[in-house]
Amino acid sequence: MSLVASDETRFPPITRRLRLGFVGGGRGALIGQVHAMGARLSNRWQAVAGALSSDPEIALASGRDWLLERVYTDYDEMAQREAALADGIEAVVISTPNWTHKNIAEAFLKKGIDVICDKPLTTMVEDALELVRLQRDTGLIVGVTYPYTSHAMVRQARELVLAGELGRVRQIHVEYMQDWATEPDDPNFKGARWRRDPQRMGRASATNDIGTHAFHLAHFVTGLEMVECRAEFHVCGAPKAMEDTAFVQTRYEGGVPGTLWVTQAAPGNYCGLRIRVYGDKAGLEWDQEKPEFLRFNRLNQPETVFVRGHGAGMVTQAERLITLPRGHPEALSDAWANLYTEFAIAIEARRNGKSVPAGLLNYPSVADGARGVKFVDACADSHEAGSVWRDCKLVI
Amino acid sequence: MSLVASDETRFPPITRRLRLGFVGGGRGALIGQVHAMGARLSNRWQAVAGALSSDPEIALASGRDWLLERVYTDYDEMAQREAALADGIEAVVISTPNWTHKNIAEAFLKKGIDVICDKPLTTMVEDALELVRLQRDTGLIVGVTYPYTSHAMVRQARELVLAGELGRVRQIHVEYMQDWATEPDDPNFKGARWRRDPQRMGRASATNDIGTHAFHLAHFVTGLEMVECRAEFHVCGAPKAMEDTAFVQTRYEGGVPGTLWVTQAAPGNYCGLRIRVYGDKAGLEWDQEKPEFLRFNRLNQPETVFVRGHGAGMVTQAERLITLPRGHPEALSDAWANLYTEFAIAIEARRNGKSVPAGLLNYPSVADGARGVKFVDACADSHEAGSVWRDCKLVI
Amino acid sequence: MSLVASDETRFPPITRRLRLGFVGGGRGALIGQVHAMGARLSNRWQAVAGALSSDPEIALASGRDWLLERVYTDYDEMAQREAALADGIEAVVISTPNWTHKNIAEAFLKKGIDVICDKPLTTMVEDALELVRLQRDTGLIVGVTYPYTSHAMVRQARELVLAGELGRVRQIHVEYMQDWATEPDDPNFKGARWRRDPQRMGRASATNDIGTHAFHLAHFVTGLEMVECRAEFHVCGAPKAMEDTAFVQTRYEGGVPGTLWVTQAAPGNYCGLRIRVYGDKAGLEWDQEKPEFLRFNRLNQPETVFVRGHGAGMVTQAERLITLPRGHPEALSDAWANLYTEFAIAIEARRNGKSVPAGLLNYPSVADGARGVKFVDACADSHEAGSVWRDCKLVI
Amino acid sequence: MSLVASDETRFPPITRRLRLGFVGGGRGALIGQVHAMGARLSNRWQAVAGALSSDPEIALASGRDWLLERVYTDYDEMAQREAALADGIEAVVISTPNWTHKNIAEAFLKKGIDVICDKPLTTMVEDALELVRLQRDTGLIVGVTYPYTSHAMVRQARELVLAGELGRVRQIHVEYMQDWATEPDDPNFKGARWRRDPQRMGRASATNDIGTHAFHLAHFVTGLEMVECRAEFHVCGAPKAMEDTAFVQTRYEGGVPGTLWVTQAAPGNYCGLRIRVYGDKAGLEWDQEKPEFLRFNRLNQPETVFVRGHGAGMVTQAERLITLPRGHPEALSDAWANLYTEFAIAIEARRNGKSVPAGLLNYPSVADGARGVKFVDACADSHEAGSVWRDCKLVI
Fold this sequence. Notes:
The structure is a homotetramer.
Chain A: E1 18-23, H1 31-42, E2 45-51, H2 56-65, E3 70-71, H3 75-84, E4 91-94, H4 101-110, E5 114-118, H5 125-138, E6 142-145, H6 152-162, E7 169-177, H7 190-195, H8 198-201, H9 206-222, E8 226-234, E9 245-252, E10 256-263, E11 272-279, E12 282-287, E13 293-298, E14 303-307, H10 316-319, H11 332-351, H12 366-384, E15 390-391
Parallel strand pairs in A: 1-2, 1-4, 2-3, 4-5, 5-6, 7-10
Antiparallel strand pairs in A: 7-11, 8-9, 8-15, 9-10, 11-12, 12-13, 13-14
Helix pairs in contact in A: 1-11, 4-5, 5-12, 6-9, 9-12
């Protein structure tokens, strides 16, 4: 193995906790709390303000739950007030329903506040491109929370590919399998409702919800841009207005073929996000439900399993994300913490007018978010046109 | 679990060993020896005659290796002479290159000798249909060796599906992954050469070679007929004249969607044949490299793993195939032995003019063989037409 | 399965963050940071003060690293000052070398401050008993950080046993395997040095360090007290003054036999803590490196695997600890957070003069800590006497 | 990896099938049929004669089942008649109850017939030593059927150890876990009855039945002789006259410590025979229920998994036993076939007055059988004396 940890710098030490605000995440919502957990575990943030719900009563109650100092019922008001405070928030997390991301992000960016936005970035490509332009024009940080690529072993996988350890990449397969949509939606779970409502969800449902994770993972690990896709949408679970399953054939730059398959109606699958990449020298496989292990197989050699931890073949870019020693398992909370560590470093540097060493950070950018939106749009186009090939490369 | 072993009969006891002949399988060929191994392990056959190679020298040497009583250099001569002998062979195994199966099968069937033919049955649909007709007209036994569906746990999977334990089947996924075609073919391995020669292999290579196994497995486990497919062929390994990789989208009767994916160029995969079937009540998964286990997941229940062995939820149709107790692992030799057990029972009954109890045997028939040929043909058609949907249902 | 989630209360909501102080954990120490991480992730604590090192320079630098408000260089001074402050710490975490635990705990308890102490509680049985008495006399909370029993699936395992799902427990096996002591100690790793120094470590090394975890896990899951043990100590890694490996035969109340085996010199093992419990109706197995899964096997039934998450057979006592949905893996950080959640609830209730519902909390008590010390002592006695049986039941 | 397949010779080709006789194995017995299966699959034997039961009626019926040419009801008569025939048997398989092995083996050896004997070789050490002497005096072949060490991956494990890939061996752990004795014995299963009868089984039950397998596996893989053991016997399943569980502490030559643990009362375990060996450079693990894989871990390196098949790091001594390519799983039938292949080669060479190249064969010898008997005896002695250390080294 020619890969050795290089001398590249570690993350800078923690000197203070940045002030963080939240839009979305009130009682009954899961994902906002997961963001907060990642921020907390990273130890680089303190949650101080929030507009956790558009329902004022829930917003207030949730603000108390979160021990926030300042609670808002309206994100616009929050953006204005926080921007005006000397010790206002230094970044905002947006974890509201998808179709509201764009306006909220815009409101904060226009006030000079860095944005951490849940995926998908927006429901429409044009909105995503506007955010890309706004980010470029303002120079602010806009991060998108695809947390899975912040696992140390995914970073390890990426470096193996980029270092040529697989040879030339020849095929790429990703899948994300769940089972909760097998049954009719729980009427008490608001998220399930809007996820199947074309008015709000946009042109696709499962493809948006979990397909974007699979799409980003494939792009991140291989460094290759997906250029074309061909999708079939299906309803394999309880009857519903939008797809819960999508089979996508994919083509990456250089003509590399692949598949991307998502379903929310496969009993016995919870968050079965898996990637398999095969080159002409070796292959690799990773499964998010067993995130500590990376299977790596050189052709005609015994199998190799990398296990997260210092040493034992880990590369610098992965080592940097390690908190606990090998065998003390890390998991999803830790991946979110890694993500929030990178956001903090980027945002603190920007605020201090400092630059970050090239290659130090690898959080998903606004462009990565826009790529996902374009992918979903191309899948929907393809499906509606009878599953023909559609261009899905984002042109910024 | 409502499934319990029923009172159905066990296999009849062994009373004598049937005489078996072989065409193909000479020195340098693997699969003929695997057939012989299965026949031997079943204890219901004795190998007595063979035309193991078209090269007379190899035929004779191989015949000695196999300790055969009668060695031929020509299958036609073998068919005639054996048919004329009082103690001639009672069945012939055909494990020659694919494009020769049809003529050889015909030669033996016309002499009244039952046929056990390797897959794919033929390289052309019309040839397959002729064999189907010839079988029907003669009433002889024609079995096709898809061995994987003779694993006890595949029988268990099938019965779970047929008994409705998964609810209505909603999606079907099969894959077969190998890695030997990543590199240029070994010039000493004859099989690799003809597998990539369109003149001999027919319209597809990997799809023929391993796709037919995946196709049969999906059909066998679910009991559903595939009606349409849409294929993309790729070369992902060393350059070659025919595909080593195929991504196929599939549709089964009743509109059930699925995927079928095969590759011979995925480093670190050996014989990665896997099936995943999801219904509206439960799902199941089976992997031929770990054939003793069947993962079965009811929605919102703890996971269930069936382990091969008497009792513990095994159904009659699977129990019948069990030789060794739970924990004494069986594997591929045992699956081949099961197949040869069923062939022997069918052929002995036919020769004795007896009937076999309904449901006792489940070996792949000539129609199953022809279905596979039709599937390959439809994939090739689809690919050549730009990966459009093609009808792949066999009409006999 | 007769086990269903009962109506027992959930954990009370968070209303404020308790103020936490730390003794130990300065630069170069790992475990103090893991405590801090668990406290942070639980969201029920804020770290405000610390005496992180006995070296004043390190203490100050480490205090800055941790963003503490008040930094001390002496734990005694810290105890006095914090006790005197209106907003002084509400609990102290002790993560110093083992032989210092007792005096530090005493100093804080005498000032009325609740204590969270790393394992082993002390190095001598008499010291442990003094702390037990001091806790009883003061009525303060003393928790001991055996984090593994705060995994949801370990709670699930315990409830299965206590509910009689395994029948009568007949044998109990625990092991904890690591590999870092295979090689000579890293001279830069202070912890390795004192771990092999009988003057400081007490009468055993690996048995103290990881044996206590295995001991507690067995006790916790089965609810049975270990009454006798017989130990053999070995050095299987690089030469050293104390054992890195111990094979212990064990006997629990009711005459239940078992084994307990620990080593720090088994290459390829990182934190291989595993428990296997067998009753006359069923058995279970859990592995801390794959903490999300609990294998449960009823005799003559298919295998069952419980997967952490709401529903699907999880009992209330395990459900209560769940943060993320099934398939979003939790791991060691989450177990520590669970532990710190329980400490916070216990301490806040005590400070408020409230009682906690019976069965709500299950953190390791000072008596659990003392049991571990007694076990180590009995093992050392046994080994020194030629591996004879020794009583290891704690009499308080 | 410095290990490469050497130029050592392959097994000689098959030129004829040796004639094999059986004592034991009649209707209702399992193990005789497993022997026959291995012999058949090896293709180097034909079963021609047998005294399958001491009950004449069963002997005759079983002989018909087995399609034998010559059926006896008395082993003595069989030995005499077969020895007198020009085409009499060339070896006899003994798979009768343990306490009868010695007299039967003697009867055949005295007639000049090579012996293949099931384990344990005898129930008393003195009997075993007599067979050792008789073998030495006659120069005949006496093999003992410990089949697990005939798995290719166990041979691979052994060669890794012998080649020094693990460094100096520092600890050795074996276990064999089953669950069938959890419940009262099935009154229809004769084998269960005599297995718990001290008059017939000898001084130990589970230790004899499965402990000998674990003992031989440890010896085979490490090449080290066990010199001392200390055993505790338990009944952990249904009440019975002899132990169903034994915990043994072990010491090998050079002072290498270890554990050996067997139970037949651990629900959810079928044939859980596992070995773990740790040296000062690396460790290895193998599990007979997943016999195709060998986990090998160098200290501070990524994990390595060897998968059975040609190439990919397999050594000559393991390669030689490979029938099917990687990914076409072999299992227990194949291990038995390997054993019968080696017996055939040894016996044919002896009969032809030829020698076998050194290192070509590795079947368990009569001395290996005697070692197992001595081990069981030492365990029983140890247990009865209060679990003190007992010498268990065989002195021939």
